[in-house]
Amino acid sequence: MRGILAIYRREMGSYFASPIAYIVIGFFLLVTGYFFYNILSIFVMRQDMMAMQAARMGSPPEMDVPSLVLRNFMGVVSTIILFMIPMLTMGVYAEERKRGTMEMLMTSPLTEWQIVLGKFFAAFSLYGVMLAPTLIFQVVMARYSDPGMPWRVLGSGYLGVLLLGAVLVAIGSFISSLTESQIIAAVVTFVVFLLLWVLDIGASGGSQTGGLLQYLSILRHFDDFSRGVIDTSSVVFYLSLTVLGLFLTLRTLDSMRWRRA
Amino acid sequence: MIEVEHLTKSYGQARAVNDISFKVEKGEILGFLGPNGAGKTTTMRILTGYLPATAGAARVAGFDVFEQSMEVRKRIGYLPETPPLYPDMSVRGYLEFVARIKGVAKADIESRVDTAMELTNLDERADDLIKRLSRGYRQRVGIAQAIVHNPDVVILDEPTVGLDPKQIIEVRKLIKGLANDHTVILSTHILPEVSMTCDRVVIINKGRIAAVDTPENLTTQLKGGERVYIEVRGEAEKLRSTLESIEGITNINVETRGDDAPLAVTVESEQGRDLRAGIAAGLVGAGFELLELRGVSLSLEDIFLQLTTEEQEQAA
């Protein structure tokens, strides 16, 4: 535990000592803020139109704006993080290998699990720090919304984003452990995430392969969360993928000992 | 403190380290001497538990480096060829981190870090970021990192590479000082370094040990005899026969350097026999113009070259 904590603290310190974390977080908030504003105004406008229609036609207006905004916003966030996480994870191991500090970590009395977990939790925390300010948007909306804020959807939505992020961080860190170049790590991670995205589009078809892809697509599992449904199988799916990513990273570290260094 | 037995490391067909055995006693400074690519770094990496050996065994403080890697790693401080530094950290922050991952007790971290900085003369730069330090200071941080947890064994891979002469002297002094409490292994391809800092030398070439001894013994033993260099004016054939008549000479090497130039001769004799007076008398008696006569001592450099080229000839 002490070893994990030592690694974790160093990682967090180095994230905020370099500009990259600030740039990525700032950019993320800029983009999500823009989308949140747009989604909110679209649905508010639509509701106004429906309300006017209802006044003429006489049918009662039925529109849960906060839920719709949340659902769409979570969808946007899940897409944007595909672009941001490669930048958070690219250096996790690649930089360490390039600097030669990996050799120090591997010859210190730390187990590989301590290194992998310390680094994972640090990258994941940074992701959490990036995500946290978007809660302000929700608080503002909750303040003025009628009907009131659907807290359940909010909770499940953010749980989903966190779980999805954990998977992506684990995959990104794994890819970073395969190379000494941050650039290569970032590009490959980005391509892999893009493939996951394409897989999701492919999963839209009704065919048998479509069904299989649908089951495997990490974004498809996210839909439930953004609708306020916490499906245990999706939670298990995400957690298993995260553990798989961590395990693969562990194997890479192990294999460094066996390869020509 | 360190026992290495028949250690072998293969990468596919190539053998980076081939059947190496040696021992290092407590408090000793052992120098690993060899040309680049001889297997120095590989051997060190095996000792630190970074690489597994293909065959053979190594023990540090009685613990097997492979089977009881964690115990060994706690007792070893290791400076790889490039100091493993985090440029964004301060010297103190970095050393505290290293102390933590090396398992130094929480209460001792501060005092251990202070001691390490004191030994390496880093006190004044404690709060500077590592990226702002010069090469020499970085190397010192690297050494401080290797001793911060007060390990039994300190392994230094090329600790003086890339330093200026003044820094080299400082680092050597620092290493000598370490030997009081630590067992030290250092690698180098610079010869004066071993004769200056090390108690014993392992000369390693192409993955094999070419010689193990003290620097002094290596110089006397391996030269295998005394050498005398002579410059003389006269006829080469006559000179050879004159020298052959002097007792005790084992080898004569005459070099003609043009018509008028004097002959340059290297004469080897059995060990412990000083033939200078005899040669001088003999040559002058036979009517040669004796221009120069001096004893030649083999430097460690010659021995090193001799050993490593012999190896190459064997291999070829």
Key attributes of the depicted protein:
heterodimer, A: 261 residues, mainly alpha, B: 316 residues, Rossmann fold, elongated
Largest sheet of chain B: 6 strands, mixed
Global geometry of chain A: elongated
Task: Tell me the β content of chain B.
Answer: 25-35%
CATH architecture of the largest domain in chain B: 3-Layer(aba) Sandwich
Radius of gyration of chain A: 21 Å
Any idea what the radius of gyration of chain B is? 25 Å
- Tally of helical runs of chain B: 11
Provide the helix percentage of chain B.
Answer: 25-40%
Mean pLDDT of chain A: 88
N to C succession of SSEs of chain A:
HHHHHHHHHHHH
Poorly predicted runs of chain B are none
What would your notes on this structure say?
The complex is a heterodimer of chains A (261) and B (316). Chain A is mostly helical. Chain A has one domain. Chain A contains 12 helices and no strands. The longest helix of chain A has 39 residues. Chain A is elongated, with a radius of gyration of 21 Å. Chain B has 316 residues and is α/β, with parallel strands linked by helices. Chain B has 2 domains: 220 residues, Rossmann fold (3-Layer(aba) Sandwich), CATH 3.40.50; 78 residues, Alpha-Beta Plaits (2-Layer Sandwich), CATH 3.30.70.3100. In chain B, 36% of the residues lie in helices and 29% in strands. In chain B, the strands form 3 sheets. Chain B has a 6-stranded mixed beta sheet with strand order 6-7-8-3-9-10, with helices on both faces. Chain B has a 4-stranded antiparallel beta sheet with strand order 2-1-4-5. Chain B has a 4-stranded antiparallel beta sheet with strand order 12-13-11-14, with helices on one face. In chain B, helix 3 crosses helix 4 and helix 4 crosses helix 5. Chain B is elongated, with a radius of gyration of 25 Å. The model of chain B has no long low-confidence stretch (mean pLDDT 84). The interface between A and B is medium-sized, with 27 and 30 residues.
